Protein 1
Amino acid sequence: MDLFLEKDDDPRTLAFVAERNRLSEESLATPEMQADAEALQAMMERQDRLIVPTRRGNWLFDFNRSRENPLGVLRRLPATQAPRADAPWETVFDLDAFCARDGKRWIFGGSVTCPFEPTRVLLRLSDGGSDLTRFLEFDLEAKQVVDGGFDTPAVRAQASWLSRDEILYFGSIDTFSATQSGWPRVGRRLRRGEEPAKADIMFEAASTDVTGYGFVIDPALGGHEGPETQQFRVFMENHEIGKLSLNIENGDGIPRRLPLPQEIGFDINHSHILWLAKTDEQVPSGSLVLQALTPFGDQPLGTERRILVEPAPGRAVHHFSLLRNFAVYSVDDRLSPSLYVLDLTRADAEPQRISLPEGIEALYFTPLYADLHLGDDTLSVIGSGFLKPPTRYTLSLSDEARRPVSTPPVLVAEDTSPAFFDAEGMTSHLLEATSEDGTKVPYHLVLPKTWTEGELPVLIYGYGGFAASLAPHYSGTTGRFLEQGGAYAQAYIRGGSELGPQWHTPVKRHGRHKAYEDFVAIARDLVKRGYSKPSRIACTGGSNGGLLTGVMLTRYPDDFGAVWCRVPVLDMTRFHKFPAGRAWMDEYGNPDDEADRTYLLSYSPLHQIKPASEQAYPPIYIESSSNDDRVHPSHARRFTLRLEDAGHTPLFHEYGSGGHGGAGNSAEMARRTAMGYSFLRKTIMMP
């Protein structure tokens, strides 16, 4: 049996990993790989990049990596100055120096701003890139860790501020405080110097939920006037991934559940909730709905609903947010984006469409201010495309008196990223493949400057699960591959929500095979259109996308010339044996249920391996991380061993840090990608 590979400290596991790492280094650590790694590292450390700042008080903040600080520094700039790369930024927190003093590797994951005292934040520090999070109180004005301040243990955790001296802390500090998936379920009122286990409990999600969390909304902090300006608390119970219940507690200690469907996305402010329906339970799936809040009554949700976006084929709402006085949302129609704003202070206001510059394939937006209670309704909007470097625009929705503007708002261009690669002569195309059941599946194909018909090396990336949406993005890492003559395809297969919630639901549980049929249809479409041939097509993906690539290897081996499988889920009968995996059963099914297990076994890559004497597989490179606490690295280890036992010759590399997301310093992240590119160079890039 190979189950010893589930034990990280077993000498046999350590020996297995060390030997396979040695073999992959011998194969992939070439001079060309090193050149790629150095180029990618230099790209990550460029000091002329586009900056999207966050404002607190009179300062703009940015987190920056450099050759001197590969883990990064938090820095600030007076808000009166333009946040450009050549501005006189001042270091506030040096993570590299902190780690050297602390004797431990921490990865910066952002910060939680105290709205009651914006110079205070909770630094969110990940243990080596894992899901274990430490919250550390930091004084931005004094530029130092607060002596005697909040410093929580490194566990799966969430935190928000209750007051200047208290935080609402959800931490999986023990079995009582954690759900069966290992995420936190108990919310506590934590005071400085207090042990989390001894803090007063404010809210409990069920142990069978995935997680719980909460936060405070304080209308008075935002300058809102009225008789009811006291704070109220919002608690969320995440029953399954994508299913939740929202509760409001107005200070009387009684959480009141909002009568909303469980399958929604949402945002909330002092006066409204904006929610996206993912089923037809109350409104048609795909509707974006605005409702008033009445947090101090027995019924905390108004009964009047306003549908801002009606569902339509190919339409999807991906980004939406409630500011102090505005609702903001973007709508994609067959992957073409548009942006809207709605004034919440006027009952008769209609949504206004914001004009977008030409050539934007994708956009996202983020509030300028670090907390809903601070500042005004100013947004940073970032527009980009596969070959179009991102530009940061300002969208000002309030005047200096913090009142909504009376004239239609417009985007004001502020700064544009430098080009990370030479895109002259490259092109981006939105195409469609036809899946086995006749469904039209969109994908983007980005072509290099020159290529030979029928011989184009193509790397197809996909995910296809958990309603996660992919979007066109500008990437110097992808550009490096394009410059070397490869093409990049991004697959919008079912399982995501690129075309709306209905793009996800047919693929859940016993519909999973449809995602795999969609993906291979794209590979075959590239051949049909004359771009490439199977031996020149590689696929890649991570996590659920790693499962996707594992299925491509075992189910469709003749359609690919290489498979790059990253931090993968591969054993569909044991994924739930690890705590985090228990949260995935709504998506995949329950391996302990006979019908589900039979279906899971029909595509589980670990169980679908055929002997080399029966089926040749394309070359495969499997990468994982020793401290991945979301998808255990034993999936990758056991799959590698099973392939070897069946007579195949996979390449495998397990990195010592980085966690599920591959985080690390710039050199580590660059080398990880360069190893994958070296694999592609030895397979689909070879003549």
Protein 2
Amino acid sequence: MIEKIKIKETFDLASKYHQKNNFKKAENLYESILEVDPNHLESNFRLGSLFAQINNLKKAKSYLVKAIEIEPLHSKAYNNLGIVFIRLREFKKAKICYEKAIEIEPNQEEAYSNLGLVLNELGENKKSIISYVKAIEINPNHLNAIKNISILFKQVQLDNLTENNLLKLKKLFLLLFKRNDIEHNDIFFNAKTILLTNEKYKYFNKIVVSDLLLEKAIIKNILEEELFHLMLQKSLIQDRLLEKILTKIRQEILSSLINFNQDILKSKFEFMISLAEQCFFNEYCFAQSKEEIGYINQLRDSIENEKEINEYEIAILGCYIPLNASEIIGKKLLNYKSKNNLFNDLISLQIKEPLKEKELLNSIKSFDRVSDSVSKKVRNQYEENPYPRWRYSYRNSPSNPVVIINNQIKPNKIESNDKFNNPNVLIAGCGTGKHIFIAQNYLNAKIFVVDLSKASLAYAKRKTDELGIDNVEFLQADILQLENLNRKFDLIESVGVLHHMQDPVKGLKVLLNLLEPHGFLKLGLYSKIARNYIIEVKKLIKKNNFKNSIDDIRNFRQIVINDKKDKSLKKIYEKTDFYSTSGIRDLLFHVQECHYKLDELKKILLDFNLEFLGFADLNMKNEYAKLYSKDKKNIFLDNWNKFEIDNPDTFTGMYNFWIRKIIK
């Protein structure tokens, strides 16, 4: 037992261990203080917070309640108790805690952010947005509030906005788009609503066939909007009408260059650069006429032969082809410094970053030669078009893996244990690395990533290097080769991967052999019912003899963009993947894919003696629960099968779910 005089010294040491996530040493020291002084306020508070971090909710609640008994005006204790109640699914109690925390400390940003989270859980989305906005007003750099409001904007469509609301929201969306730690595609649709009211959008629809869009006042205004520029730079333009407008404007700007109209080029320069970034981002899926292609070929030759750098010409060329497509232009621009920072960003995006990926290719280890014939075809597709191309993603908020899994499989719940305090994680099929950034949320994780495509891995490694992430090991390999890996993992995630194998069950068997007995496996597999419209669209592709070349992909996209009746095509252009070359190739032109029904999935799980823990983050769970109230955990696949038959769009992405081995 420590002496009273040493309490401060012990508390400081406990705090240091706590900050370094050395939970056991911190716990022992806090408890040693409480043996001497059971009413030591901060030790009770910190111990309650620590147990919340490791998901020991019973102890967390006990110590936080004790802290509040000692100091009834302890705002942070109320806030952290609210976190415990959220994890216990007691949302109304959590709401009371956050409101009390705010009452005590009106500018407590954390409580406003957490209140936004619980209001979202309670279905009070508008109030949730207001609460997040309040947190951001107090601290414009509040990462959780910024992340959560961005995710909420993906789910909630803003409508009936007053002029005053539009101005406030425009300011908020400018703040969000200027950040490089969110997924800008999530906020695109609401940003579009703020930028283009219904009246403006209807007018756009009328003028899209106009001879000269650049002469229209409404076009001039939007091309000067900072928010529109940022949308072009950081999010895919997921709108058929806007794509038509942009394609037409690009054509007119090219014509301005041909006709030496310097006024147009000068006034639209920032927009031209932004459009060049958009076109690189979407991998040049916009339609190009033969006339435009002819002019662009001439422009490329001219730039290669010119001694001086003409930034207008470079920006326009970058709207049609990647600047790194020409080795001569790439060398000219590699060390070029413009007075315009956005132009420098364009050089970085289209020249320096691809060059860095080429350099990284040699640093990535290969397990063995890929021998499976289907795997070779899949690898070649992703070598040509690494998927998905992305710029920015959410910054991680590390938490205990059990907390994360429970949040996804709710209302089901798994018990905590210390085997996940330092988890070994395998991402089997990481693509271009977006999945790595999601896995960074696992506290103290060591991450091992595998993919067929070296080009995809190089993209992923560039992104992790840029952010200084050093807990990731990369390997090029076929999942089928991993049976010889001689490693075990606590967590394995393979989302959107196995269904691209000739025999997905064979791949599943390999992954299960790599999983620790106590481990968890997350899978993502295509639904046969949800993807029925894909099958119909593929018939159209086959009928028109479209191949997976860039020209055929562009031509097919024009059929979809101009269609006004086909329901299957409507579903296609509502998908984010429609708005990039790699996306639509993955969605509709893939060399191999399998589909499943839930009764088939159930049989596979039974054959492998696996426990289904629940679907991850599914918005339809509330609707399911109303119909199947006896299934308290939402895990009966027979019921889910019936539900999907009645609601065929439930799993339009894929079946995304957690499983584990049943230990006898």
Protein 3
Amino acid sequence: MVQLKIYKVNISKSILAFIFVFFFFISNGQVLPVRLTTEMAENPLAVVENQPRLSWQLVSKESHASQIAYLILIASSEEKLNNDDGDIWNSGRVNSDKNLHIVYGGNPLKNETKYFWKVKVWNQSGKISKWSRTATFRTASLESDLHPTWIGAITKADSHLPEGRTYHTATFNREKKNSFINASDSLARRSIMLRKPFETKKEIKEAVVYISGLGHYELTINGKKVGNSQFAPLWTDYDKTVNYNIYELSAKEFQKGDNVIGVLLGNGMYNTLAERYTKFFVSFGPPTLFFKMKIKYNDGSEEIVKSDATWKYSKSPITYNSIFGGEDYNANLEQKGWNRKGFKDSDWKKVVIQEAPKGVLRSQTAPPVTIQKQYEVKTVKELKPNFYVFDMGQNLSGFPTIKVKGKKGQTIRVWVAEGLNEEGTIAQGRSGKPYYYDYTLKGKDVEEWTPKFSFYGYQYVQIENINYKEDKNKDLPTLVELKSNFIYNSAGEAGSFACSNEIFNKTHELINNSIKSNFQSVFTDCPQREKLGWLEEIQLNGPGLMFNYNLQNFIPATMQNISDSQRDNGLIPTIVPEYVIFGGDFTDSPEWGVTGVILPWMYYEYYGDASLLEKYFPVMKNYVDYLGTKATNHIVSHGLGDWYDYGTHPAGYSKNSPIALSATSHYYY
């Protein structure tokens, strides 16, 4: 089957080079292998399979061109590969038209090792192509290889954080909520900075970092951020799976002599106990860090820098951070140069060794969430003197960036919302309130700030008691610039849609932006009030998602989350990861749980990859068996049914069709 895909690209030097190579190689009617992938990812850093699968695409200037054979070389170094020395695997000529999921057939691969590979093919006339460009993959670590030590500011025992998953806001009054917060140690909810100086005396060849900072982290080496992730690592059930990330660093990231590792930690879904709005109070523990860096020197020697008792910590300028309630930042608490050499950390405290999360440490193979787009102010209204509401022109999932100037100690409060009240103020009533960002100025020149550990769905921004651009009131701070950051998963778009009818084009754009706003660590139901992975999202819209996005490496992570959440009796809950147990139909609904059966099949149908069917067949079978125990004469009658069906009746349970119709249809399918 031939698929036609249209790619929109920015012309860069790399693209121009590719175009040159493309036309040079195929000008003689050659077939050229391009876009090499390992386990369906380009140059992955965390291959967990012992026999990874290799794939490539074919391009040709000729019509009816095809591949009749291939030859793969895998080498332990780029130099050997350039000399056509496949010391790890030389497939020899294989007479096959297959170019997807070629199973590695060489000697056993080593953990934490980088490999280099290339391929050439023969076309239908027997002509051999040039070698493809070099591709790479790095094998992941096992938890036993990493020997993780978790560090932070306070132990779980001393934190007095609530245990369990039944603390959702529907069962809480203000008094009970405050009692939970007051019983815990505030340090257990605090964003902290951790630092570790280390020295290098030899020339570095490369370094590889393995890191998991829970709930979320930002890593710097010598003051420079590593990677472009937001909200890393991706969400999991931390009692079952804990993701860690891998980064390759070149020698230029380091200095000869003193270097400093800096890590900033926030709460995320790992620790949701906080004031303001929250959907539930669930904590797996206080913020915590695992870190390992393997440095390879040019002389062949290695050195390990890891998280241990020698690290130090201090409270960060982020005085409040909640995935549900917002974020506050006091610029007067900044410690300039804290993550660089020469900083005096005598006032910092030694970290404590913390209890490790219960989950298995697994390499994150799904793509990260990143800032994808940025929007400037479209229109602004001054509702009354120094009271502004900004329309950012796009409803999105994300957070603002502000540039301000003013006096030391002045605070700007930034409210965000998807809609407006009749009087023009922002409306959070249906999306969870109160949610806002507070920034306290240090009073030096123009200050810029972007939140790091909280996001919300919004289009409108409301800021009171400010000047906008001009310093009309000398007693108030001035907002110099405002931008919206649109965040979603960086999986990338696989297809696009356009037609001659602008209504359909706009409808597609509307739906697509809604999907992007909910395409986070998991596919969520909404990017503000719940941020939960209700499973029907991904199976009901599965074909649309796969036609539009590259989900090859995202869906396997979803299936791991589903497997982690499955009960011993086979039940797959409606929400995965199941951070909070709502109970009843909101925990057990066939139209939601059956995603654990349908999704691996969709994956096979679309990508031709049976690996999820093979790996998760027990999950699939156990769920179908579970539904059988709930059926009477093969009729399943429980669950949410056709939830929020169309009509003038109140939203909720189906009014147009019986629950048994929907539930049994899914069971039968």
